[in-house]
Protein: Glutaredoxin
Organism: Pseudogemmobacter lacusdianii
Amino acid sequence: MKTVEIYTTPICPYCLAAKRLLDRKGVAYQETDVSRDPALREAMMERAGGRRSVPQIFIGGAHVGGSDDIHLLDREGRLDPMLAD
């Protein structure tokens, strides 16, 4: 499986929904909490094309968007192939 990175904050329901989807699929991910570190949020925004909302999700280094985006990819059957090596 490709590396999955997810930028989150602790009280974000969309972050929890995205992590639950990845957990259901058995996908390990690297989580970065941006709630208390402006430099981490700035780095996330740079990588995500200026998007400041969380979560921001990357698969294999490619930005795939937020919670709605990853759920849409899953519904369309495109998430599993993206996660595969």
